[in-house]
Amino acid sequence: MKRFGTILSNGIKDFHPVYFAMVMATGIVSIAFDAMAFPHIAKILFLLNLVFYSILCVIVAARMMFFRSNVMADLKVLPQAWLFLTFVVGTNTIGAQLVIFQHATGLASLLWLIALISWIICIYFILSNLILMRKRTVREMVNGATLLIIVSTVSVAMLGLRLLDATAIHDTYAYFAAWTFWASGFALYLFIVPLIIYRLFFKTLEPGDWEAPYWICMGAPAIITLTGSEFVMHMPAVAVWDDIREITLRITIFAWIIGTSWIPYQLFMDIRQLITVNVAGPAPLWIKTFPWSRLAFGRQYYFYGPSSWSRVFPIGMYTACTLSLAKATGSGSLGIIPQYWGWFALLIWSLTLIGTVRSVIALRFSSR
């Protein structure tokens, strides 16, 4: 029991908000299945996400209370600081679920405010870290997790827009503020993604160097597409917004095309990694049949890590954004894609959850 207490204490001490990627992933898959007209699956995922978010928030609060120096130390290291943004996105995603499933706009507004303040704090530390680093070092440290700065920025607009629509507030300045967050996220993507493209396509990338967070290269334009589509459908119906609506629609379609173009490469890199890394000789048939099975099964071939959730959020977000874009453009054929891709998202979510439960059980038994 004493050993378990030590492990629990160390777990809180070393805990990092990257685990909020599980909340991000579960939330967006839930929202996607609600849009796919599977309300029972969507609500089950919503209830699970409330449990996940509550547990993780308790752990974060305990870490802030008892290990504040460790939190500050993480915020002062750039690769760690990026990951704190998962709390911002996770909080906004839970807020969006509360609006959709419970119409709890009061609680969702509180979560939006918490997310906004957290986003400001994270941006402050990220900018401080960037100022203190050399240009070459920053370029080398840019990776998939860096794009969380775009996802978090757009997530503030995403929940803000849902709250404005749910509360029937048609204040022009509020809509413009939310739109500015969305447009800033798109501009940041155009600035950051060339650095990642250089790293992925113009430098040697071994299968072991591929990481699940690189899926955010698709996830970032996907959340831009989702939020942009919502703006197109819910902008104030006044003449001054007509040009902005047209620009927003064009950017949204462009973002969806960018996100879609990433998918074949990311699937290929995932498969390449999962059938070769830590596999001596030819991969077993069950791995070749569905490589992502390694996220949940096998002893020698088990391949789960907390960052695995970074793969699920973009896959789920692509489902949700495509459905929203189909609605915004009136394109029925576009809505066919997510009817299949959504089930793939749910399968990857399930395998990743099994991997998470398995790792927790393994930790529990290791304490005996």
Automatic annotation (TrEMBL):
Domain of life: Bacteria
InterPro entries given in the database record: SLAC1/Mae1/Ssu1/TehA (IPR004695), Sulfite_efflux_TDT (IPR051629), Voltage-dep_anion_channel_sf (IPR038665)
Main localisation: membrane
UniProt keyword annotations, A-Z: Cell membrane, Membrane, Transmembrane, Transmembrane helix, Transport
Places the protein is found: Cell membrane
Recorded GO MF terms: sulfite transmembrane transporter activity
Keyword Cell division assigned: no
Transmembrane segments: 18-38, 44-62, 82-104, 110-132, 144-164, 176-202, 214-235, 247-265, 340-361
GO cellular component terms, A-Z: plasma membrane
Family under the similarity heading: Belongs to the tellurite-resistance/dicarboxylate transporter (TDT) family.
Name the UniProt record assigns to this protein: C4-dicarboxylate transporter
Native species: Nitrosospira lacus
